Amino acid sequence: MTELNLDEDKIKQLFKTALVEVIQEQKEVFSDLLAEIIQDIALERAIKEGEDTAPVSREAIFKILGNKG
């Protein structure tokens, strides 16, 4: 078996190159993944923001949603 002797900088460069290739070859998959990450972050922020606000009744929410449709 052949022994590999790679320094840390070489490994980092190889990893970066491989990552760029994956992103370029799988643009749609990467784009979907990135969109999902952004949605998760936005949901987390909305939940945290909601924890600091006063509760709202179910009826009030549906009244607002009904007016937007």
UniProtKB/TrEMBL annotation:
Highest taxon above the source species: Bacteria
InterPro entries in alphabetical order: Antitoxin_put
Listed name of the protein: Uncharacterized protein
Species of the source: Cyanomargarita calcarea GSE-NOS-MK-12-04C
